[in-house]
Each structure stands twice: as structure tokens, then as C-alpha cells.
Write a structure and sequence with these properties.
alpha/beta, two-stranded antiparallel ribbon, 12 helices, seven-stranded mixed sheet
Amino acid sequence: MYKLVYGFFYVLSLLPWRLVYIISDFVAFILEYVVKYRKEVIQKNLTIAFPEKSDQERKKIAHQFYSHFTDSILETIKLISLSDENFQKRFTSNVEVLNDLYATGQNVQIMAGHFFNWEFANWGVSKYGKYPFIAVYMPLSNPYFNKLVLSMRQRYGSIMVPATNFRAHFQKYASNGHYAMALAADQNPGNPISAYWLPFFGRMTPFVKGPEKGAKLNNTAQVLVHFYPTKRGHYHMQYEVMTTTPNNFKEGALTALYVKTLEEKIKQNPANYLWSHKRWKYEFDAEKYGKLVVES
């Protein structure tokens, strides 16, 4: 069965780029105007994030979001058969920032947000970075798609660690020495009572404590990555060192720095963020969560 799934998507991946984007435009139209995929969630998120913008401006951001969303799906399929040469033409980064840290001997925690296209970003870190690259991922429920996606992501040596069994897998690789590990740190926490609460686009929002705790425990440098399309099918990734001394930050302050920087990057290119994700899933209750608030 897996061979059939792989063969089908491999054939799809051979479609020329021009046709890929014609298909993407059509699918985006269907999602936005026919299916209305997560339309209410997207509208609510954009209203919270950009109350100063007009309805028309927010509609424009939503429209561009659907385009980025479908582009990323079809571009990911293209990666199945994409040549090294073609990828090199389509991806740039200031990877020297990461590689300079490698020379110091310090491990790195790469803090990402849900920007497009994270599959290009995964390849970029593992292909051009000197660190053994660990990427934390959520396994797909379908075993055939899960195997296909993992195979694609591991092409340049990315070490894929399932979030469902993170500790056991991570310790095995971390004990071997040097590593850079990527985390999508804007995930919703499983339990808001065990999160840090911070202002994010003016609204109190819970963020997981794990990345900060891990950084302090392992004394890892914190590096934020911001990736975005420079034109269709071409991406740039910007590495930005937040700190090399995580233990100098009081509790919650390192997470606050990440949230502040993440918001700044989203504002630079609003449509490039995953607005269909329920970022404001939990309502702030001062009585319940007041002690967990971190001043940014």
C-alpha cells in the first residue's frame, strides 16, 4: 500500500512549477470561497491580531493566507522529487549565524513559529547547518502518509523526534553531544494551568514552558528562525540569536522574549502565518491563571 501512495505522490511531484501554482490557485479558491475552510477561526484570529485594520485589509490578509497555505502543501509534494540543484536555487539563509555557534561548542535550540514553508526550512537547516539537526514533530494518524512525510523530511539527515515520546528519543541523541533542535514554540499548551501567560497581539495567551526549561537545563543558545517566501517557490530563512546565556533570564523572561520577537516577525508579513491555527483557544481567567502571568 505504501508503494502505491508513494508512487502517486511521486508522479504528482513531477508536475512543472507553473502547473503546480495553477492548481494551487484553484484549490485556494475552493478552500476560501466554497469550502470556507476554517474561515471563522481565521477571521477571529485576524480581528484579535489586527483590530486597527479595516475589514477589507483583514480580508486581503486572509486571501493571501489561503494562497500561502495551498502553495505550501503543493510545494511539499514537489519536494519528494526536487533535485539538490533546484532546491539550492530556491532557498537562501544566513546559516553562518548557526554555524558560528557550532564553532563555540554550544548546543542550540531553534525557536520557530508556524510560518510558511516549514518543510523548506527543515531541509535548509539540515542541509546547510553543521549541527546534527533534531526536529520535533507530531506523527500523522495515517501510517502511509506519516512514512512518506518522514522519508521526505529526513532526506538531508534531519533526526525526527516524535512529540508523543519526546523524552526517550531526545535523550538518546542529546547524549551523543552536539545538536541543534527545532521547536514550534507557538503550539497551544495541553494544559493552560501549566503554561506561561503572556500578552500576544494585546491578548493574554498561554505558551508552553518546555522550551525555556530545556534551554536552561541544557544551557543551549536560543535562536529564532523566521522564514518567508521571497517569491513563489523561493524562500529565505533568517537566523537571529536571542541569547547564548539562557540561565541569566528570570523565569518566563526567555519565553517573553520569544513571544515579543515572534509577534514582530508576524507583523512584517501577516499572511505568512498559520492563521487557521487556534492560537487564542483559551480565555484568560485572572483567578485561575493570574499567578502564571509573565511581564514582557
